[in-house]
Amino acid sequence: MAAYRSAAGFQRVLLAFKHVCLKQRCGVIICRYSTVYDPNEKTFDKILIANRGEIACRVIKTCKKMGIKTVAVHSDVDSSAVHVKMADEAVCVGPAPTSKSYLNMDAIMNAVKQTGAQAVHPGYGFLSENKEFAKRLAAEGVTFIGPDTHAIQAMGDKIESKLIAKAAKVNTIPGFDGVVKDAEEAVKIAGEIGYPVMIKASAGGGGKGMRISWNDEETREGFRFSSQEAASSFGDDRLLIEKFIDNPRHIEIQVLADKHGNALWLNERECSIQRRNQKVVEEAPSTFLDPDTRRAMGEQAVSLAKAVKYSSAGTVEFLVDSQKNFYFLEMNTRLQVEHPITECITGLDLVHQMIRIAKGYKLQQKQSDIPINGWAIESRVYAEDPYKSFGLPSIGRLSQYQEPLNLPNVRVDSGIQEGSDISIYYDPMISKLVTYGKTREEALKKMEEALDNYVIRGVTHNIPLLREIIVHPRFVSGDISTKFLPEVYPDGFKGHMLTAGERRELLATTAALYVAAQLRSQKFLGDLRVSIVPAESRQWELCVELDKGVHMLGVSRAGNNYTVSEIVQNITSHFKLRVLSKLAAYLSKHMPEKIPEDTSSILRSPMPGSVVAVSVKPGDNVAEGQEICVIEAMKMQNSMTAAKTAKVKSVHCKAGDTVGEGDLLVELE
Question: Locate the ATP-grasp domain: which residues (predicted)?
């Protein structure tokens, strides 16, 4: 390649290092929602937040603005968590497993009594849609900041909610309006509806307990996994089956209703970018809806809310086909994960509204008061490896962590800090990164910049995938559906593919940074420790390994400028870099190479988690694709299968074991 010149200050932001996320200094966020607090409007003196992580922190922030004291609950491993530090009081409610802590109703009720909390905000997940929890609070005279138990029951049960939706003249998906008893009945019902079908937990949400089936065998397997996940996540293994609408958009309507019969729809959120039925990128508004469709969806969402006398913030989810026909999917009777983008375009603080409504105040707004001001985009930043099935969980400690809050119109909802641990017990979300702009183009450019300036070290994260999504031509044009990821990346996500120009920039920048670092390491208090290189010599020959490509580069320095030229060019597509001196590169050729492992004969865990079931024993014959064991990671179950037809040589795990990424599970002959 031709000589490439790079200034020592490296003022130019190179694409290659955008993907490495250069560290930036912290600044002040410009919020796009406000808590208009009337000190004469008394609500509660103390609120307990029955949750953890970013949503607990989010609720605490609004409570502080309203002058309300807060109580955090936590498991023993969360004792130093950010939400615990933010709250005025904190109570340990049990050990790490959710069933013994954040789902432990007895312990949380004791915490309420112990602290004298007048109300409980459940956040999302955990007990947020548990009617028994709401009943127990009511029995103690404690306010549940959410809808009443009737609405939770009606909308939390997908079978009942579908019947209510039909009666309220809300468009619904064809399917079986009852509880599926067993796998064989599931096969029978699926055959009557016609494949493909969606098997999902009646009491579920968040993509858990949900499987798509295209044939009888997948229906049997889907029934088993969905029922197990449903029981594990919600304590309710009932399932329903409905027609799967192929290639739809997932668009939801935010509703807000009070105890006086008033209800509003706060526009839509586009949530079509998903993996394993869980959202990855959301935006508000949607590029797809016209004003008439938006109004029709909003009015049906409000009609459903009024049908169950709903009072709080809630979300009605719809599937929308290519002709803008929309069908009711479910109603989430809680604060939604992606609520920040609605706050950005409406200016409303939804947590504030929930607290007001729970106290019995009327809504302050009319439907005509609800605007669409600008555009907001949310990227869910996860501790996941995006190169494995678009994101398998990663655990570890955040050795370095800095949010891009120095940028204007950027909001980060998080519940972690540098030094925090990401464990196998809880959801792998690191944060919700939100950007706002007057236009979608402006919001997208701001998201690109924010992702480039987000520093995360210590765990594998999905920022490379998020960044590729938001700059992909299909996403930029709004041509998306729930199949976006598998369609754009049919062989899985492989990372950014460098152009020839980007490759030259990356090689030149890497070489220049390496030389600069070498020179810096020779200095001590401004003086050279040892003069390794003669003062007049400013020439270096380096070997830069870029994945499997080897590049011999010549680097020269003149003042504060570096010039890099390639001696031998060997083009490659990926960018995993290693820099060696010329001598080290020569000697490395004599190093023995590690023999690749025969992955067809062994099964290793692709992620940290716990073993739910082992389906084989030594001596068993297994067929290619047959299930060997099931690993549960962060409340999702994953079936591990045989890579070939063979006999089982040995089994190295049993149900209940905790395994790490790469641990040996089973060997085949």
Answer: 162-359
**Cβ(16)–Cβ(505) below 8 Å:** yes
Pairing of the two strands 119-121 and 46-49: parallel
Characterise 478 by phi-psi region: left (phi > 0), alpha (psi -120 to 50), beta (else). Answer: left
Per-residue tokens: 458: 């210590």
Query: Are 132 and 81 a contacting pair, CB within 8 Å?
Result: no
Q: Roughly how many angstroms between the first and final C-alpha of the chain, as a whole number?
A: 49
Cα gap 240→174, rounded to integer Å: 12
Average pLDDT of the chain to the nearest whole number: 87
Query: What pLDDT is attached to residue 138?
Result: 97
Backbone angles phi, psi at 634, to 5 degrees: 50, 50
Q: What does the radius of gyration of the chain's CA atoms come to, in whole angstroms?
A: 27
Q: Which residues, 6 or more positions from 408, have their beta carbon under 8 angstroms from its beta carbon? A: 30
Above 60 in pLDDT, residue 621?
Answer: yes
Cβ atoms < 10 Å from Cβ of 106: 10
Tokens of residue 555, six digits? 């680097």
CB-CB contact of 83 with 57 (8 Å): yes
Which amino acid, one-letter code, is at 327? Answer: Y
Q: What is the DSSP letter of 172?
A: B
Residue range 134-175, pLDDT digits in tens: 999 999 999 999 999 999 999 988 788 989 999 999 999 888
When pLDDT is cut at 50, 70 and 90, the band that residue 4 belongs to is: very low
User: How many other C-beta atoms are found inside a 10 Å radius of the C-beta of residue 626?
Assistant: 14
- Range with the largest mean pLDDT of 381-385, 545-549, 591-595, 630-634: 381-385
97 prior amide bond cis, ω within 30: no
Residues in the chain: 669
pLDDT of residue 577: 63
Q: What percent of the chain has pLDDT over 90?
A: 60
**CA–CA dist 104, 163 (Å, integer):** 31
- Output the six-digit token pair for 266: 């706060």
Asked if residue 11 lies in contact with residue 45, where contact means CB atoms within 8 angstroms, the answer is no
pLDDT at residue 193 is higher than 50: yes
List, in sequence order, the alpha helices (H) in 175-270.
Answer: 183-193, 216-234
Question: Over 50: is that where the pLDDT of 657 sits?
Answer: yes
Res. 6: pLDDT tops 80:
no
Task: Give the per-residue pLDDT at 37.
Answer: 75
- What are the b/e assignments for 477-511, b being 16+ CB within 10 Å? eeebbbebbeebbeeebebbebeeeebbbbbbbbb
- Under 8 Å CB-to-CB from 166, ≥6 apart: which residues? 172
CA–CA separation, 420 vs 285, rounded Å?
Answer: 34
Distance in angstroms (rounded) separating the CA atoms of residues 311 and 265: 13
pLDDT (mean) for 543-547: 81
Looking at per-residue pLDDT, the higher value among 7 and 299 belongs to: 299
Q: Given a cut of 60, is residue 281 above it in pLDDT?
A: yes
Q: In 522-635, which residue ranges form alpha helices assigned H by DSSP?
A: 582-588
The rounded distance, in Å, linking the Cα atoms of 323 and 338 is 26
- Any idea which residues carry the catalytic annotation? 334
* Residue with the larger pLDDT of the pair 562 and 54: 54
Q: Do the Cβ atoms of 361 and 258 come closer than 8 Å?
A: yes
Backbone torsion region of residue 172, taken as left when φ is above 0, otherwise alpha when ψ lies between -120 and 50, otherwise beta:
beta
Produce one character per residue of 524-536: b if its CB has 16 or more CB atoms within 10 Å, e if not.
eeeeeeeeeeeee
Q: Compute the distance between CA of residue 611 and CA of residue 665 in angstroms, rounded to an integer.
A: 10
d(CA 104, CA 504): 56
List, in order, residues 6 or more apart from 392 with CB less than 8 Å away: 384, 385, 606, 607, 633, 638
Tokens matching residue 41: 């409007």
